[in-house]
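Changelog note: in this version the structure field was regenerated for every chain. One regenerated record is shown below for reference.
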Amino acid sequence: MSDTVIPVPQVHVIPTSDGGTFPVRRVYCIGRNFAAHAVEMGHDPDREPPFFFQKNPDNLDASGSFPYPPHSSDVHHEVELLVGLKSGGTDIPVDTALDHVWGYGVSLDMTRRDLQGEAKKMGRPWEIGKAFERSGPVGPLHPVSKVGHPDHGQVTLKVNGDLRQEGDLNQMIWKVPEMISYLSEYFELRAGDVIMAGTPSGVDAISRGDVMEATIDGLGTLTVKVV
């Protein structure tokens, strides 16, 4: 007989391209990791120390639909590379950081921009704008054995067929090995941790009924309908 006083919460998983599932432990998101996006958000594009915020594991959603969230009238799309770790540790050197990666995928960091903006003005955390239910649509994770470690390739997002965002993975200010190494200085990374690696410029509002198509070269297209 279990001694837990409530039912044990289910481990949240996301799909993999080989038909399996990837259990998610933590979700780290880097902010302003493309220079052009930093500019459009009103910041200096010079390389500053990285900063991260978090989503919750069950915010990641592979259903293909995104429910427009409450208490917002300005919800934005942000297409991002998703990085899934198979192992971790602390103080991981940059030159061995990629050894900890299981695979990569396409994701969206959906943002209640109006609520995020209010939080910024008041010096408060961003979670109310970033970590709401189903705020991280994801496609399947592709294993490194199939896709390698993508460090370049076009990143795009279309809404109803119109191109909104366009960039290249090689434009990331902080590369994947650097993000892993930096995070491991402040957190103990483990298998099941995922990193959302930042978005190119062109973030904009979506409306109910819109269809978003997020594509990263070599990782396919994630299609999500706003409902």
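Spot check on this record: The two ends are 42 Å apart (CA to CA). The chain is about 15% helix and 30% strand.
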